[in-house]
Amino acid sequence: MSLLQLEHVSHRYGNQRFLARQAEQTVLQDVSLTLEAGTCLGLLGRSGAGKSTLGRILLGLERPKAGRVLFNGQDIYDAASKDFRKDIQVVFQDSFAAVNPKLTAGQIIAEPLTNFLGLSPDALDERLGGLMTQVGLSKTDLTKYPNQFSGGQLQRICIARAIATNPKLIILDEAVSSLDMVNKALILDLLRNLKETLGLAYVFITHDVQAAQALSDRFMILDQGQLVGDYPTLRSFSEATDEHVQAIRQAVLAIHPRDRTIRK
């Protein structure tokens, strides 16, 4: 049995205006996929493809208009128990917006531990120290506030929070897109190490082809709400020449400005 299954998921939004209701807009159409435990699915697509909507559906935050989302064989929207929330966590693009600026790093990471595990004070303190070590930070950083961290460091705090409950799946929603090249490489390396040591599965939602290739085992392309490409290996994705892969590659800026061109 697959860890995660999407079965014919479709979703749409209605546009409500004053005294009028416009026709609904379809953002996802008949999306089906599977994800095995311990693997990373790179879900690529340009802006407006429906990636973030799909991420919210996977997290149990937005029920699709049609289809099912199964986690360990259980429909997350019809299940009487919501225990899956401990097993599915998320890391967002904007680390500063993803945390409460009035809480310390320790309080931020402790939130899911308090909500789901109910650890004693001593066990909580030990767990927090271990999590900081896992993400490459110091236990002394637990007393710092978000404005005392760099963007890369704060993203490590968000990753520590995501792995705190020992989840089986983490949704990475553009998790490295706001970082500079150096921090992006460091965070991708951290995510790769955590995946291997903790047996994590990822859904890596991104428009960054290079980042996806650095972390993902399998690749799918979402375009205008539909899955238009499925590549089971890095090699098959790297060698793909179809129009959807080419469009995503062309949307990525070259690293050096002299290598960039302006389309007219």
Automatic annotation (TrEMBL):
Keyword list, A-Z: ATP-binding, Nucleotide-binding, Transport
GO BP annotations listed: transmembrane transport
ABC transporter domain boundaries: 4-249
One Gene Ontology MF term: ATP binding
Matching InterPro entries: AAA+_ATPase, ABC_transp_ATP-bind, ABC_transporter-like_ATP-bd, ABC_transporter-like_CS, P-loop_NTPase
Transmembrane segments: none
SMART domains hit by this protein: AAA
Source species, domain of life: Bacteria
UniProt xrefs under PANTHER family: TRANSPORT ATP-BINDING PROTEIN
Protein name, per record: ABC transporter related
The species this protein was found in: Exiguobacterium sibiricum (strain DSM 17290 / CCUG 55495 / CIP 109462 / JCM 13490 / 255-15)
